[in-house]
Amino acid sequence: MGVVSPIGNTTETFIDNLLAGCSGVGPITLFDASNMPARIAAEVKNIPLSFRDRKIAFALEAAGQAYAASTFCSTLPQGDGGLSIGLGLELFSPEDMAVYRQSGSKLPSSLQERLTFLQTPSDLCVPLIAKRFNLTKPPLIHVSACAAGTDAIGAAFHMVRDGLWQWALAGATDSMINPLGVGGFCKLSALSTSNDRPERASRPFDQNRNGFVLGEGAGMLVLEPLAQSQARGAKIHAEIAGYGNSFDAHGISEPHPEGRGAYQAMRRALDDAGVSADEIDCVNAHGTSTPKNDPVETIAIKRLLGKRAKEVPVCATKAMIGHLISAAGAVEAIAAIGCMEKGWVHPTINLENPDPACDLDYVPQKSRPHKQRYVLSNSFGFGGQNASVLLKAFNGS
Amino acid sequence: MDQTFQNASCDSLKNIIVTGLGHVTSKECDLAPYLKTPKTRKFMGPQDIMAVAAAGQALKSAGLLDQPLGERAGLFLAVGYIPFEKDDLNLLFEASTDERGFSIKRFTGEGFNAISPLLTFRCLSNMPAFHISVNFDLQGPYFVTYPGPGQLYSALRKACALLAADIINVALVGAVAHQRNFLVEHHFDRIAHPVSRERLMDGAGCLILENAVHAAGRKAPGRGKLLEYGISYHPFDPFEDGESPIASECFTGANPPKGESGPCSLPITLSLAGQGHVRHELESRDGIHAFSVWEMMKLKTVSLSQEWG
Q: What is the domain range of residue B227?
């Protein structure tokens, strides 16, 4: 696994900081946001950027980490791998636009400069990663918004399970902490404006939540058949057991009031794995800290888990790292796997006064030891695209 | 070029029937028959309008327009590069620049307020999928991908896999691209092998693929079969002039639209095709090589006979 996140740029640091309940949210430093309604975000720090478009730099870094960790003992099969990646919106540079207009629409002369001038196509990172790791299977690119990361892992899982790929690099990347990204979400009134207390702004399931906090980062995983990974002596973090996705077919910015699509995605992930809802030990929730998502996700989880709903820990990684948009599902799957390996559930920080409509065990404030065999990781997208992946602890046999 | 195709053979496709086709080549298309949730119209940009119109046409031709699609229908959609109109950009930048160029101070004070909140919805790649799902009550699985014709084949592969596994009965396989706008024209102007803006087309196309048993059960109109397809990939360095693939596309047995229609060429061309075999083959500029062979038929009701698998 490889991760670039607002609370750490290695999986070890990321998981340790999650379990410690560290917040990655602070004032925006990447540009002067002092006049914006939302002036806080969860920025990635302390990482050299190999690329102007932050999300492409993050993807390359996370992919490199995951590949290096996976091939520490022995190599992966050459030429039989594929890339499945969730991508955020294309970066548009307002500075370049001003230059472009003033220069009479002149383009830079070199191909590399032209491809990153004014607007960088998000899919530019696909050939860069594929070439670097010799991934020769047709890549799968997912643009299902906030569900893209989970869709990328799920789709890669199916390709490996079905024998079409011998191994996969799967994950997602995003960074929208730029003037147009923050401006666009502000126009939709989607972001928390608790600017005076940044580290307390992302508070999933809390009565005083007032929107999500924008985050950025990338998460990448190497997936391969169990027997292959055992044969080559690779460190196995977890199994992917099932995946499902669905449409809400309801509202453009509001989930179905009964959590229909969210339930269907989770149900399909369980059906895909042949696992009963009674076997779920933890849910890594989408948990955005928005007024609309959190109670509806609660309803859907209750419907899925039935009488056990209040016994199963439900945690929200976004409390610490904000909403990584297209990358959220990939980084949160790594969070779920890392915590499952350690036998702990990370906390949902800032949950001080639970919303009466959110009445599950959200692991408020402090992490907790909890042995887990099956964990569901949820991602529900703006526009009603829902995805869920079922993760299984690897028991060593 | 690596010619190791990830193929699907006739056997795995024998129970998959084409029961509907639809396409549009302009955002000036009639949306009224398909807009079941009229209030969503204000959120729709050209790519959303075209995607819904093409899907609506295809569903109508398949006899599926008047019923909710529900959980047993999936959407497999390739969307072109993100569009942005010059007028919107001009409005934004006139309120965000000063004599030195872009001014973050002016942007956050004035430019930001010049943006219509609806603009955000109109350029997102996943919005065509949202509008199709909500207007046709489609609740099943999806794969929403971007930006070129190669990705359409990944969408087609996913649709066929879920139909063959009996996870869905109906698959909407489609593509949409709004390309006659400033940002997409800029993109095609700066790539290794540029495409002139005059060649860029707007469009959307949609195929309804259906499980043969389901189609026969409802006496669906049969329009064709997918006989074979394959997809392969060759990684390349996008910054090396000599490495970027040259895009090419070839149809036999049908006439494609003139111009560059991004991921839409296959569904649009099949929509326009008469009877007979149609073969499509492409080398995309993102390194994908793909082909498919289709048998397009005179319209007749699907039955569980040898002809339909």
A: 10-82+124-308
